[in-house]
Specification:
By secondary structure, this protein is α+β, with helices and mostly antiparallel strands. It has a single domain (3-122), classed as 2-Layer Sandwich (60s Ribosomal Protein L30, Chain: A). It is built from 2 helices and 6 strands; from the N terminus they run βββαβαββ. The chain has helices spanning 47-64, 85-95, and strands at 3-6, 21-24, 27-33, 72-79, 102-107, 115-122. A 6-stranded mixed β-sheet has the order 1-2-3-6-4-5, covered by helices on one side. The longest helix has 18 residues, at 47-64. It is globular, with a radius of gyration of 14 Å. The chain starts with a strand and ends with a strand. GO terms for molecular function: hydrolase activity. InterPro entries: RutC-like_sf (IPR035959), YjgF/YER057c/UK114 (IPR006175). This is Rid family detoxifying hydrolase.
Length: 125
C-alpha cells in the first residue's frame, strides 16, 4: 500500500499531525474540513455559508488529487446543531451532483464554527 499526501498549494497548513487528503490507489480520503480560508480565518457567519466554505476546501483537496466533486462517494458531516439539518440537506443538494454520496450526519461539540465535513472520493484512473 502506497499512501500519497494531498495538500492543495493555496491552503492553510494542517493544524495537527494529519494530511488534508491521503490518496491510496484511486481512493482519496479527505480529512475533516471546516469553514476556514487559507490563512485560517473563519469564513461565513451563518450555517449555509460555512457549509459552502467547508465544501470549497474539500473541492480544493479533491482537485489537487486530480478529481472533482462528482467522485465523492461518502460524506461525514459534523453539525454544531441538528437544528441546521434541513439547511444541510439543501446545501448538499446544491453543491454535490446526483447521485448523492453515502452520508453520516452527527451532532458535534464544535468550538467556534457550525460544521465540519470529511469525505471519501474515487479519483479517475
Amino acid at each position: 500500500m502506497h499512501k500519497i499526501p494531498v495538500v492543495p498549494a493555496d491552503s492553510a497548513p494542517p493544524a495537527g499531525p494529519y494530511s488534508p487528503g491521503v490518496r491510496v490507489g484511486n481512493l482519496l480520503f479527505v480529512s475533516g474540513q471546516g469553514p476556514f480560508d487559507a490563512a485560517g480565518n473563519l469564513v461565513g457567519d451563518d450555517f449555509a455559508s460555512q457549509a459552502r466554505a467547508a465544501f470549497a476546501n474539500i473541492e480544493a483537496i479533491v482537485r489537487a488529487a486530480g478529481g472533482d466533486l462528482s467522485g465523492i462517494v461518502r460524506i461525514g458531516a459534523y453539525l454544531k446543531s441538528l437544528d441546521d439539518f434541513a439547511e444541510w440537506n439543501a446545501v448538499m443538494r446544491d453543491v454535490l451532483p446526483a447521485p448523492y454520496p453515502a452520508r453520516t450526519t452527527i451532532p458535534a461539540d464544535l468550538p467556534d464554527f457550525l460544521i465540519e465535513i470529511d469525505a471519501v472520493a474515487v479519483l479517475p484512473e
